[in-house]
Structure formats: structure tokens, C-alpha cells
Amino acid sequence: MKIIYITNNRMPSEKAHSFQVIKMCESFFNAGIKIELWVPKRFNAIKEDPFIYYNIRPVFKIIKIPVIDPIPLEIIFGHVANLIESLTFALSGYWRLRKNKECSVYSRDQFILWFLSFSKNRFIYEIHSFPGKPFFYDRIWKKADKIIAITAALKQKIVERGIDGGKILVAPDAVDLAAFDAVKTDKEELKMELGLPKEFLVGYVGRFKTLGMEKGIKNMIEVLPMLGSDIKMVFVGGEEQEIKEYKMLAGRLNVLPQCVFIGYQSYSKIIKYTKAMDAVVIPFPNKLHYAYYASPLKLFEYMASGRPIISSDLPALREVLNDKNALFFKPEDAAGLARAIKMIKSSQMLGYHLSRQALADVKEYTWDNRAKNILNFIQQ
After folding, report:
1. Which residues contact 88 (CB under 8 A, 6 or more apart)?
2. Rounded to whole angstroms, how far apart are CA atoms 226 and 338?
3. Which residues lie closer than 8 Å to 121 by C-beta, 6 or more apart?
4. Shared domain check, 270 and 151
């Protein structure tokens, strides 16, 4: 069996999307599948080889497809820039895939799959959110050989559109356990190495916003006036403008000295920052995307870090987390989050038991396990 994984994404990029894609390609290869990754040939400020950037063995081909890329001029062209790039990538990819009918196509991108729905190519659609206008997707879902949904709620929504549930597999995201296990340095030494404060650190590690949506960092900052000065919050992974925005909020609340803001970091550094925390938070607000369709990489990375997790109580997160491996609070409830942080700080035993259970549970959620489950499903 040969799979062509086609994705309209810069490779490499600072986005979790790209990392997830390349890890899946590596794991498909590990499962004995011939795999090629097709990506657009776009302007990219990151010049490093993708395999080096992500610390992945170069065991499969990455083929870059020519596109018209006006996205660097998005400030002039607006959303039209993205539309032009997406459309030219879909048409270019579709034309090349017509010559590869013997291969299975795997993708997260609706544009290319909509074109493929008119061809004889066998394709698998991995879906990460439910669209606002699902009628455009109905054809893709019906024509797809198999569908991979990252949450049970996503599967249910697709079934409600009249799609056979038997061709939909729920496969949450995953983590590279070996990469986390390789960092043996203890928490206090990591704080020193990374130049972090010695106090009790509550961390958020990952992109600060998704599709322009707030991810709960504002709520975390609003909690600080309810906590003692011996507790600091560390936010890792933001863009410059986002950091400036949240610093201004912290300044207005007079809690800026209790905040540490750090920009985007490499994956190896992300692991160190996560393991340097005393507790880690998933502060997602109660919005449709986060509540039902999100399976964030940070969730599994937090579990693998061995640090106690404090999480918004949302159905999608509850598909993986439970009362034995995480401490929950009502979304957007600052007082509830403050109570959870104080509980973890005051009880080392509670934090220990939560983190040990999370470490045990996350062993199920490796990239190789995910790839094997998907391959077993699509080969049925």
C-alpha cells in the first residue's frame, strides 16, 4: 500500500498542524507503508530542512508542488491571497494525483478533496473541526473511502449529516513519548537552564490563539490577583503582537511581575519548558470548537511531561482526561481556576497522583499507535 499525504501547509512551519502531519507520515512509514508528503512550494521564512527542523529521519519523500503564493502580500490582498494559494494548490495537486490512481490519498484539506471527489482516486479525510457551512463538505464525506475524526463529537456531527458511521474512526491526536522521556533533567535544574523564576510556576505552552480565537490566556492572567506573589505564570509560544497584547492586560491588572512571556520555541525547547513547570493549564473557553472538536497536541504533551494538569471542563477534553489524571475547573471561571491552582500548590500528593496517572494513560496515545489504528481501519 502507498499513501500520498497531501496538505496545504508550509513545511516546516511554527504551527502544530505541520508538526502533526509530518509525525503521522513518519509513523505511517514505521508501520511499513510507502508514504510521500506533498506540500505547496511557498515562501517560507524558515529555511531549515523539514527533517532537521522536526528531528525526524528522512525516510520518506517531501514533494513541493508549485503554487501561486500571494500570502506574503496578504496585507494588500486580504483573504483573496489565501483563496488564490489554496485554489492553485488544489488544482495543481489534483492534476498530479490523476496520474497516481493506484495510491490512497490522505488529507486534512477540503479544497483538494473536493476536486478529488469527482475523480476515481481513493481518499481518506482526516477532519479536525466541523465546518460552519457543512453542505460544501457533504460531497467529500460521501465520496471519502474513510473518515478520521479527532473527537467523538465530530464523528457524531458527521453521522447526523447522513454519513455511515461505520466508515468513521475516532482517532485523537498523539505525542512522541520518547522525546519527553529523553529529557531527564529535573524541574528545578530546567528552571535554571531556561532562566525561569524559582517560584511555583503555572504554565501554558503552545500557540496563544487558534484561528484568531482566544484560547484562555486572558482568563489565566485575570486569575493572578487571586493568587499569592509566590505563584508566577509562564506563557510559551506566542507571536510578538500577541505577547504585547497580553502584557498590556497584565499591566492593567498590576500582575505583570507575576507573568513570564516567551515567544515561539523549537519542539525540543517546548519539552523542556513544559517539564520545567509545577503545573500546566489548558484554559480553553467554552466555545464550540474547543468544547467539541479540539484534540490539542498540548493535551498529550502535558500528559507526557509528568506535570499535574489543570483543565477547562469541556467534553472534547473529557474524551481523554478524567478526574484521576487532571483537575478540572469551569471554563472561563477565574475563581475556579484559582482554587485548582491553590489545591495543586498545597498538596504535592494530589499533583503526584494526577501526573502519574496521566503518564500511564498517555502511553496509549503515541503517534505509532495512532498510525497503526488508522491503517487497520482504512485497510478493512
Report:
1. 67, 68
2. 7
3. 97, 98, 100, 101, 103, 105
4. no
Percent of the chain with pLDDT over 70: 98
- For the entire predicted model, the pTM comes to 0.93
Residues 207 and 272 in one domain: yes
Nearest residue to 227 (alpha-carbon basis) of 261, 252, 259: 259
Which pLDDT tens digit goes with each residue over 46-80?
889 999 999 899 999 999 999 888 766 666 666 77
What DSSP assignment string belongs to 56-112? Answer: ----SEEEEEE----GGGHHHHTHHHHHHHHHHHHHHHHHHHTT-TTSEEEES-HHH
298 and 351 together in one domain: yes
Q: What is the pLDDT of residue 210?
A: 82
User: Among residues 262, 288, 266, 278, which one has the least CA distance to residue 350?
Assistant: 278
In terms of domains, do 135 and 235 share one?
A: no
Which residues of the chain form beta strands (DSSP E)? 2-6, 34-41, 61-66, 104-107, 122-127, 146-149, 168-170, 200-205, 209-210, 213-214, 231-238, 259-263, 279-282, 309-312, 327-329
Rounded to 10 deg, the angle between the 348-362 and 334-346 helix axes is 100
Q: pLDDT value at position 95?
A: 85
Residue 157 has pLDDT above 90, yes or no: yes
**Does 6 share its domain with 137?**
yes
* Total of domains in the chain: 2
Q: Amino acid letter at 201?
A: L
Instruction: Read off the CATH number of the domain in which 344 is found.
Output: 3.40.50.2000
Domain span at residue 215 reads: 177-362
